[in-house]
Amino acid sequence: MTAVDTGLAAEYAAIFAFSAATVHLDGDARDRAEALESEHRTRRDRLLDHYSAAGAEAPAPAAGYDVGVIADAAAAQELLTAVELDVTATWRAGVASSDPEERRLCLDMYAASAVSLAQWRLAIGQAVADPWPGRAE
């Protein structure tokens, strides 16, 4: 499994989680969640184009993802924060790839996901000052 395969899997999972959690939100958080779901779909489509251009078959999404119980807005916010952190960490790890093309794609995706994470944190009132989002504590 390549870093891009792992990143695509993270994008698939994010789309699923946003679809499940956004209905529990309102106001700015809901607006941002809808925008971020769209961004994850755009990234997924870019990755699928990458596979197509390389003449490779993209991994398929899982049949489902365990997002736990989303009982309220607080649980939805917690889930989506974890998802954005996971996606960012996945792309950050991919930057270490030894393949230059893969490394560049992972770097682009890492930058985009770091911005998404910051936007999400702002939307729910969290601090965003993390110089290296996705880095293990």
From TrEMBL:
Q: Which InterPro entries match?
A: DUF4439, Ferritin-like, Ferritin-like_SF
Residue intervals of the DUF4439 domain: 3-136
Transmembrane residue ranges: none
The name on file for this protein is DUF4439 domain-containing protein
